[in-house]
Amino acid sequence: MPLNIVRSDITRLSADAIVNTANPEAAVGPGVDRAVFEAAGFDELLAERRKIGRLEPGQAAATPAFALDAKYVIHTVGPLWEGGSAGEEQAVASCYRNSLSLARELGCASAAFPLISTGTLGFPKDRALKIAVDEISSFLMELPPEEDMDVTLAVYDRESFALSGKLFSGIRELIGDAETAEFEKRMEERAERRSRAEKRRPLKPRSGRPGNAKESEPPQYFSMMENVEEPSIAPVPVPPSRSSAPLAPSFGSAPAASSRSAAPAAPETAARSADGAGKPSLRELILGRRESFQQYLLRAIDRSGMTDPEVYKRANVDRKLFSKIRSNEDYQPSKRTAVAFAIALKLSEDETLDMLACAGLTLSGSSKFDIIIRYCLRNGIYDIHEINCILFDYEQALLGA
Fold this sequence. Notes:
Elements: E1 3-7, E2 17-21, H1 32-40, H2 42-52, E3 60-64, E4 72-76, H3 88-105, E5 110-114, H4 125-142, E6 150-155, H5 166-200, H6 282-287, H7 293-304, H8 308-314, H9 319-327, H10 335-344, H11 349-358, H12 368-378, H13 384-393
Parallel strand pairs: 1-6, 2-4, 2-5, 5-6
Antiparallel strand pairs: 3-4
Helix pairs in contact: 1-2, 3-4, 5-12, 8-10, 10-11
């Protein structure tokens, strides 16, 4: 995945470049700096760091990584937080930009960052997160199509990941309402099952008690967050023109023509089933199936006016995976990959459900992941990295490959 967020100690990650929040002087500071030196090999890394000399806030320089699972350590100096009036945000942004540019110059295919300046330097965590995501995503979008870089943002603990605002309050309310409704529904089902069981059970005396006492039964437990799938949206036939057709898939008729992936046309005459009842044969059903996920996706890209690289970068998907999808009409994506493309293409909720249906998927009303996606679609939130921050906060799988 081009940009991933993980809850981890950065020294435990594997990447071509590990980024270190460094001391301005050629000395070891507290926090991430000390952890990186100790994991890499204190004396060896310090000797290389001394060759660099003093670094100003926002600057970046590289050394070998020694014992770390990396090729390089990129040392960058974050600013001390002084209330925000001393250019601290610009300095943090420079840390990310300069470190990413240096990693690219070094030929790195992957890089791992901490949340720069949020430890002992006191930079507000919510602002640091926004700067990190904005700078990394902008850098990745600007890379030429032939270049890829996987970037990981390592968050050491839950307290280091701060989200706030009306957006997250609204999602929390939705998730809370869904959990409450699901719980109440399951309690009603439980009471109804118990009632039916008691009506069917013959009365017999319990040992050591008067007759007519009912036997005790073992307690039943129900998962409050068990996924309950909703029925798929009814399909709408697709006109033959890709350029003007709505993005609704067809079922029971041949898929729309595609300049990239043409579907086979149904024969004028086809054998009916052997029972003579006029029911469609298996061959007819297969030829008249709903268009594939790949066909729907490529048709949606054509309508969007975006290039392939624009779409897969907006979807937080790398070039290799997109090439697999484009070359395989029967490619079956994971839900998070399918939703990522829907977000990249700014599809409506109904169009997203149609695209998911082409892959045999849907959005339920009880899954936290699905509730968050529905909320974002209904509120016009199409920044995939912003959505991934929300998903990360709720410990859900992130969008992308």
